[in-house]
Automatic annotation (TrEMBL):
<dbReference type="Pfam" id="PF00001">
    <property type="entry name" value="7tm_1"/>
</dbReference>
<dbReference type="GO" id="GO:0016020">
    <property type="term" value="C:membrane"/>
</dbReference>
<dbReference type="GO" id="GO:0004930">
    <property type="term" value="F:G protein-coupled receptor activity"/>
</dbReference>
<dbReference type="GO" id="GO:0005549">
    <property type="term" value="F:odorant binding"/>
</dbReference>
<protein>
    <submittedName>
        <fullName>Green-sensitive opsin-like</fullName>
    </submittedName>
</protein>
<keyword id="KW-1133">Transmembrane helix</keyword>
<feature type="transmembrane region" description="Helical">
    <location>
        <begin position="180"/>
        <end position="198"/>
    </location>
</feature>
<dbReference type="InterPro" id="IPR052921">
    <property type="entry name" value="GPCR1_Superfamily_Member"/>
</dbReference>
<keyword id="KW-0472">Membrane</keyword>
<dbReference type="InterPro" id="IPR017452">
    <property type="entry name" value="GPCR_Rhodpsn_7TM"/>
</dbReference>
<feature type="transmembrane region" description="Helical">
    <location>
        <begin position="126"/>
        <end position="150"/>
    </location>
</feature>
<keyword id="KW-0812">Transmembrane</keyword>
<feature type="transmembrane region" description="Helical">
    <location>
        <begin position="48"/>
        <end position="70"/>
    </location>
</feature>
<dbReference type="GO" id="GO:0004984">
    <property type="term" value="F:olfactory receptor activity"/>
</dbReference>
<feature type="transmembrane region" description="Helical">
    <location>
        <begin position="219"/>
        <end position="238"/>
    </location>
</feature>
<dbReference type="InterPro" id="IPR000276">
    <property type="entry name" value="GPCR_Rhodpsn"/>
</dbReference>
<feature type="transmembrane region" description="Helical">
    <location>
        <begin position="82"/>
        <end position="106"/>
    </location>
</feature>
Length: 318
């Protein structure tokens, strides 16, 4: 009995930490979104538009995943049909972030390696087309997983009530294998794109001199940070498979691993976007200082924010 009470207190503590951290990072994201809309230059420039897409996607993931966490914690059941809709949106947003990061990397590649064509290829109209392509590509994994679910699930299942868990959408082992294959394909394509862009920009850096060299080095660092952020996002796609294997070994270990995964591969990538563009970009940072509710000192201390824990109860299985 004592062990059960200890575990319940441990989970209570973690859920409280989650609420605090989600609130902090949602406030930061909403401040950055407000800053994005504060100047015409931002919402007519491709790299800032794509930055806003990642902010909206990350904020949506934080809100939906946190709501699922709370519902799961209180053992709240919902109709399976409603859970399908939530799952569709959650997986879509989960893929939108890494695909957008890849697009942002390509934008930096065009800006540095093809500067004369940057205005043509990265116009506002091109940005809108790029967003449509990003969401189309991100919807493919949703379609694949849900098609397998609809093909194997009985019609009566959709009206039943259950705790909404992402693991319920995979019934058979072959479905899990197909899902893993799709994720691996995305991982490979995006990784190759990052490596290609980095190598091309590196060549330009070596050939540049003076101010051009300083500017290209900054672009190279940005691409490297995008690569790290993308790696965290893509590892998140592997987490459900790791957690499933750990669950067969030990329940407590499974809870701890899920908690760690949520910290490192769900929360951390959602915090790096503000770090990369909100604080490293000079123009955006100046606008951010003006919009910060407590002035410059508050915004400046964001640079020193350390990423801490999140929850083990988040329904996994994306």
């Amino acid at each position: 009995m004592g062990g059960s009470e200890s575990l319940e207190f441990h989970l209570n503590d973690r859920v409280t930490i989650v609420q605090f951290l989600v609130l902090i990072f949602l406030c930061i994201n909403f401040l950055l979104i407000a800053t994005f809309f504060s100047k015409v230059y931002f919402y007519t420039t491709m790299r800032y538009i794509l930055f806003a897409v990642t902010l909206l996607s990350d904020s949506s993931i934080l809100i939906m995943s946190n709501n699922l966490l709370i519902l799961s914690y209180f053992r709240f059941t919902m109709q399976i049909g409603l859970c399908v809709i939530i799952y569709l949106n959650l997986v879509l947003c989960t893929f939108v972030t890494p695909v957008t990061l890849t697009a942002m990397t390509l934008e930096r590649y065009v800006a540095i390696c093809m500067p004369l064509r940057h205005g043509e290829l990265c116009s506002t109209r091109s940005s809108i087309n790029c967003i449509l392509i990003i969401h189309s590509l991100s919807s493919v994994p949703c379609i694949v997983v849900l098609s397998m679910f609809f093909a194997s699930a009985p019609h009566s299942l959709y009206t039943q009530y259950s705790i909404c868990s992402m693991g319920m959408f995979v019934f058979l082992r072959w479905q899990n294998n197909v899902k893993l294959a799709v994720y691996q394909c995305y991982f490979l394509i995006m990784t190759l794109t990052i490596i290609f862009s980095y190598s091309k920009i590196m060549k330009v850096v070596k050939a540049a001199t003076g101010e051009d060299k300083k500017s290209t080095w900054k672009g190279l660092r940005t691409v490297a940070l995008h690569g790290f952020q993308l790696l965290l996002c893509l590892i998140q796609l592997w987490c459900p498979f790791i957690e499933t294997a750990v669950l067969q070994i030990n329940l407590k270990l499974f809870i701890d691993v899920r908690y760690f995964n949520y910290i490192m591969f769900n929360l951390t990538p959602r915090c790096l976007s503000p770090l990369i563009y909100g604080l490293r970009d000079d123009q955006f940072f100046l606008a951010l200082k003006r919009n910060a509710p407590f002035g410059f000192p508050c915004v400046k201390c964001m640079k020193n924010v350390q990423i801490s824990g999140l929850s083990d109860l988040l329904p996994s299985g994306l």
